[in-house]
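Posting this for the archive.
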Amino acid sequence: MRAVDVVVVGAGHNGLATSAVLAGQGIDHVVLERGTVAQSWRSERWDSMRLLTPNWMTRLPGWRYDGPDRDGFMRAGELADTIARYAVRVSAPVRSHTAVRGAWQEGDGYRVHTSEGDWRCRALVIASGAFGQPVVPRLAARLPQEVHSLHAAQYRRPGDLPPGGVLVVGASATGLQLAREIHASGRPVTLAVGEHVRLPRLYRGRDIHWWMNAAGWLQQRIEDEAEPERARRLPSPQLVGTPERASLDLNTLRADGIAVVGRLAGVRDGQAQFSGSLRAVCALADLKLGRLLDGIDAYAQATGLEREVGPVERLASTQPDGAPRLSLALGSEVRTVLWATGYRPDLSWLNLPVFDAQGALLHESGVVAGAAGLYVLGLPFMRRRQSSFIHGCVDDVQALGRQLVAHLHSIRSGRGSHALISG
């Protein structure tokens, strides 16, 4: 059995950023990766996927994008290459093809069981991200056998799908992008829409993320949220990264000829059944968008940006069909169901009582509750609104790194303290 001060699980951007911070502190550590560096960006994304954030936002500890296309959007493969180069740059001690199969407390630290043997460590960092396990609703089991069913993590390109109609379930960024791409291939597409967040790509001549970053909304702390758990569950916004910097919303899809229906509520007798609340759900998303744009306008006025940006804009309200369909025949009208229903972290290997009744990891800003020396990174709104963004890990790993160093010091000094350090 090998021993280090810290084991980091996952060699994506969060794990490598952690490695860079630990190396800067002279802390002995190892990064365990089930595949290769940035594996999920290479093998679990569709071919045409691009980041939702512009390139100028892409940065890691000690590195930031300095290429010629600052306002462009990297493809998934380009990002994977970037992360791989960063691993070399920071000399990260990555053990590839080393799957973590179990972890439990042992003495004043942890034992980590892997496909390549065991490790002993004083602290354990979970940096495998929020997208480890695709979420598919239980009602998927009720689909007729002749209907092809797959999650967005399995989708690569329209040509892989069987002929016939496609039902895309989920109206966040992934659902909208895939619905449009599949429809452009000549297949009839229906999009099932639940709660969603509507955003324009550009507002008053600036990227929407420029505004949210400049106004400090991306840096907002989780403790400042009135309903933190709800904030963490919000769906990703309806955005797409394209060279044209175009917006994408339900109005765009309807103009393309895509049918928009309510939330998938059930599957019964070979029929997909949809909620009748589509109009109300769209109205709520439009209301929240209006409030956001009002906030941007107020920020522009308060900071003197009025003279540097374009005029005030307002987007057309979402216009669902007058009478959206409430059911579709599965097998005849719909041959494929594509689940754009999100992900959850894959922590099945963590053998510790650190989960709530719903199976979510209990943590306070990345410090796992009731398990001294256990930390997590990359979860939505973990510490700040930007925690799940690539650049968000810079602030998070530095703050958690300070807490980790204090924890190691407490063990060595015999105090065993696990007090939080503000950061």
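The chain has a mean pLDDT of 95. DSSP finds nine helices and 25 strands in the chain.
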